[in-house]
Amino acid sequence: MALRLSLIVDELGGTLHGDGAQCIEGLAPLESAGAAELSFLSHPKYQQQLLTSQAACVIVGPAMAEVAQARGACIVTDQPYLYFARLTQLWKRKHELPRAQRIHPSAVIDPDAFVHETAVIGPLCVVERGARIGADTVLKSRVTLGEQCSIGERCIVHAGVVIGADGFGFAPNQGRWEKIEQLGAVRIGNDVEIGANTCIDRGALQDTVLEDGVKLDNLIQIGHNVRIGAHTAMAGCVGVAGSATIGAHCTVGGGAVVLGHLTLADGVHISAASVVTRSVLKPGQYTGMFPLDDNATWEKNAATLKQLHSLRDRIKALEKTLQPVRADHS
Fold first, then answer.
1. Counting beta carbons within 10 angstroms of the beta carbon of residue 306, is it exposed (0 to 12), middle (13 to 18) or buried (19 or more)?
2. Which residues are catalytic?
3. pTM of the model
4. What is the DSSP string of 57-101?
């Protein structure tokens, strides 16, 4: 189950310095790679690990080519991390076992659903009435695709994902809650990947939408009527409240929260554990969190924060009293 270096370069490009007949038996990090494994260097700060690595071959950028060649075999490419990503895809294609069946016998698919002939449905999946699944899309085990919801082509939906559960909509009525029926659906574009146990709620009136190339990690909650732009990525445990609009090519760090009815422009990047409480209409990196500290210091800082409003008013009052004095001196 090995691949020759020459085959890898023929498939993926790059410039090989070394013996193309060398067989690679696995992929591994620099620090643990063995004499028959291939690794990569994505940043010059790991140069020391490169020098001591036992890897048969290392993928590097042009700036590190000379150092890598002095160590041993290497593949030089402009984007080593991207090359490594494509190498993992090649490795999986070459080593993946053929599927025994395209649709697992335990899956439940409504007769009124449409499943493309090349889609793959795993164990215990449920595809409800009117749902649609596009070409080459894979549903892993225990995925639920709700009524009238659709998934495009070449998507990967991991175990336990629920697409199309009711959004959280209730109207207050004399101390009780009246359910608002969720009449929309979920529309997912092409080349989307959704991590395990993530939930994407159907819209109340309009559809919840994930555009092409969106990548969601595990345990993410996407509320009803949310729209996520193309090629946006979110890390684990992110929560996006209803009717938020997130632009294209955004990133949201793990554990961050976007409140409802807000808008993030294209190219907005939210740091992990931040809470987005206002719309962000200019691209850039944004952070909103209280730094970790020992508890006693944190309590003192929190108490001070509570006084900021009154301190601001006192400063304004002092400035007003000082203005006539400044005028006299001038």
1. exposed
2. 224
3. 0.91
4. EEEE-GGGHHHHHHHSEEEE-S-HHHHHHHHHHHHHHHHPPPPS-
